[in-house]
Design a protein that fits this description.
Layout lengths: L1 H13 L34 E2 L7 E2 L6 E6 H6 L5 H5 L5 E5 L7 E5 L7 E5 L2 E2 L20 E8 L3 H4 L6 E7 L4 E12 L3 E11 L3 E12 L13 E15 L2 E16 L8 E18 L4 E18 L2 E22 L5 E18 L2 E18 L3 E12 L5 E12 L4 E12 L3 H5 L14 E14 L4 E13 L2 E4 L17 E4 L5 E11 L5 E13 L12 E11 L4 E10 L2 E2 L7 E2 L2 E12 L3 E8 L18 E11 L3
Parallel strand pairs: 6-9
Antiparallel strand pairs: 1-2, 3-8, 4-5, 6-7, 8-9, 10-11, 10-35, 11-12, 12-13, 13-14, 14-15, 15-16, 16-17, 17-18, 18-19, 19-20, 20-21, 21-22, 22-23, 23-24, 24-27, 25-26, 27-28, 28-29, 29-30, 30-33, 31-32, 33-34, 34-35
Length: about 650
């Protein structure tokens, strides 16, 4: 009954909000996302261009897949310091943090495993090849230099290959443009928390640059029940450069380095465990276009490396994971105005990836060659269709062919947009699954790739001259051969007939069923007001009909923002609800539901300086996302930031 009340509340709130509604335009668009017409209303207007739903930038209305866009203005207004805190407000997403800030943070899309989410930062695939599920740990991703985030839901292997069973999260950092400006901020607050950031950026027609640095430090609390505090510190450095030496020719280079230390406990023991990590990533991209941009080419190279040193009561273990990628992409655009006034885009991509990992005396690597093609069709600027197919030639696994088709149909007169898609996905076993030793347990070289097929269908309705909109989407995914840790006493018990060992990575026989409903609402009910809400229902069952662990059936959020005093002042209220969920099959206890309330406010002293403050967990909710791993209560934070134009 408690959830029923919450669900009704979420639905009623959802009746006053709007996801982004696309403006009329061809399916293909320029590569630079359009800036919001009014920065104060950016959250209530879906950005016009979406860059991750296809191999080419698309007008939002032409996208058939389910996608959510987060802007820099939204990050700043809500005073988010770690991006995962804002992802909790995205439909279809569940976030799990193993304690306080800095601890392992997993993100699941539509009930999939957290290793089924492909994460890119400025085009670099950042999933860690040395982790057990090739996951990306969102704990160390500071949000200060992020320009936009696109969350693409549903199987996307037809575009991106392995790891994209649940979806894709594409993060773009800030790009310099206009006069050279410098920015800086400093903040302090509860639990010994302090953060600083600084940057300089600028650009013109033929160049752009952006340099930044940020730091976050917290003394924290004891994650286990005890007195020894578990702290966290993070240093992040980033750079982005671009040159246009001639018309049609561009060169871009970006890099990012993150160094972090997090102290943890071996719950329930209150001890001195810690993890030191550093991650370096970079990408170079050469772009060349012909025929006024109708034929484009891009040649890229990317590398990322993550090293971790885990110090625990069991000893010290070092992990080293690397990924390199070389890719070529070509796009051809043309129109057939005499035939259905149609626009066309054809894309071909070839890429080579190599993953390697080292842990102790174990070292291994795997190479993959991928080839994909995509076709986009827009008819009468109303019907937008896409189809993509990808073939992966892997040196260790069987070759796979995946695909994706999408459709969007716009009824301009009524403000209605229908959208949907169907796709297949694949997730290759990680090098850790295949080769890493776990104490007495040896590796399992016979683990097979995970596969899935999934579809969604939805309708988006805009009202009140696009000031209010509702999107309703149903999704249905069918993953097979899920990889799991085969522990004695679980429903998936297995024992090696020769050694008698009963802990192992193995495939779960049969097909799991994950289905659900996403409701999204955004609105600008009056001048200065922004309202958004989302509710997600997820029904996730294994092949035997038992609930899959750590998938809450009900997740909802509400956000209300108000800007006043001519835009000089603003306040933001956020409410996040996470429903009950089963922990792990090895620890079958229910995790209680919880509600988090956060408040943020800011005031501008002129055009260059702003004072800000926020209260996290306003009502001091006592909750756990993982049983036994404590979280912080109410916290107060305040700071100042400034932006200054140089070389006037």
């Amino acid at each position: 009954m408690k959830f029923l009340t919450t669900g009704v509340l979420a639905l009623s709130l959802v009746l006053t909000v709007q996801p982004v509604r696309a403006q009329s335009a061809p399916g293909a668009a320029s590569e630079t996302p359009a800036e919001p017409a009014n920065a104060g209303q950016a959250v209530a207007q879906l950005p016009e261009i979406v860059v991750s739903a296809s191999r080419i930038p698309l007008r939002a209305k032409a996208v058939g897949s389910a996608v959510t866009v987060i802007t820099a203005e939204e990050i700043e207004r809500k005073q988010v310091r770690v991006l995962s805190d804002l992802l909790r407000e995205v439909p279809g997403i569940a976030v799990h943090r193993s304690g306080t800030v800095g601890t392992l943070t997993a993100v699941r899309i539509r009930g999939s495993e957290h290793g089924h989410t492909l994460v890119l930062i400025d085009g670099v695939k950042v999933n860690d090849p040395s982790s057990s599920g090739a996951i990306y740990n969102f704990a160390d991703l500071l949000a200060g230099d992020i320009e936009r985030v696109e969350i693409l839901r549903g199987p996307q292997s037809g575009l991106y290959g392995s790891d994209a069973i649940g979806g894709v999260i594409h993060i773009t950092t800030r790009k310099g443009q206009g006069p050279v400006t410098a920015n800086a901020s400093v903040e302090g607050g509860s639990f010994g928390t302090g953060s600083v950031s600084a940057g300089i950026r600028g650009g013109g027609r033929d160049h752009h640059f952006s340099l930044g640095a940020a730091g976050l430090r917290a003394s924290g609390i004891s994650i286990a029940a005890g007195d020894e505090k578990d702290g966290y510190r993070n240093q992040t450095y980033s750079a982005k450069l671009g040159l246009r030496p001639a018309d049609g020719l561009e060169f871009e280079l970006n890099g990012r380095y993150v160094k972090a230390r997090v102290e943890t406990d071996n719950v329930p023991a209150d001890n001195d465990d810690r993890t030191d990590s550093d991650q370096a990533m970079g990408r170079g991209l050469l772009k060349y276009s012909l025929f006024d941009g109708d034929w484009r080419h891009a040649l890229g190279a990317a590398v990322q490396r993550k090293r971790r040193t885990v110090v625990s009561s069991w000893g010290t273990t070092e992990y080293d994971g690397r990924k390199t990628r070389f890719d070529y992409e070509t796009n051809l655009f043309f129109e057939t105005t005499a035939v259905a006034d149609a626009s066309h885009a054809v894309t071909f991509v070839a890429e080579q990836e190599k993953d390697s990992q080292k842990s102790g005396a174990t070292a291994s690597d795997v190479a993959n060659y991928g080839y994909s093609g995509e076709y986009q069709l827009g008819v009468w600027d109303q019907l937008h269709l896409s189809g993509s197919v990808r073939h992966d030639d892997n040196e260790r696994f069987k070759d796979t062919t995946t695909f994706r088709v999408t459709a969007a149909y716009v009824v301009e007169r009524s403000g209605t947009r229908f959208h949907g898609g169907y796709g297949t996905g694949v997730k290759n076993p990680t090098l850790s699954h295949l080769f890493q030793q776990f104490g007495r347990v040896g590796p399992n070289p016979d683990v097979e790739p995970e596969e899935s097929r999934g579809w969604d269908i939805g309708v988006e309705q805009s009202l009140m001259e696009d000031r209010l909109s509702l999107d309703v989407t149903y999704f249905n995914n069918r993953p097979t051969s899920l990889i799991y840790w085969n522990d004695a006493g679980t429903p998936y018990d297995w024992q090696d007939p020769e050694t008698g060992d009963d802990d192992f990575y193995d495939n779960l026989e049969g097909t799991s069923r994950i289905r659900g409903l996403e409701l999204t609402l955004r609105a600008t009910p009056a001048e200065g007001w922004n309202l958004s809400a989302q509710y997600t229902y997820t029904d996730a069952k294994d092949p035997d009909g038992q609930p899959l662990p750590r998938r809450a059936e009900h997740v909802a959020s509400l956000n209300l923002g108000y800007s006043f005093a001519g835009g000089k002042a603003g306040v933001d209220l956020g409410i996040d609800y996470n429903g009950k969920q089963l922990n792990l099959a090895t620890d079958p206890v229910m995790i209680d539901d919880f509600v988090l309330v956060n408040v943020a406010a800011g005031y501008k002293l002129g055009r260059q300086v702003e004072l800000f403050g926020r209260i996290d967990n306003l009502f001091d909710e006592d909750y756990e996302e993982i049983p036994g791993y404590r979280t912080t209560g109410i916290g107060f934070h305040a700071g100042v930031r400034g932006t200054f134009e140089l070389f006037r």
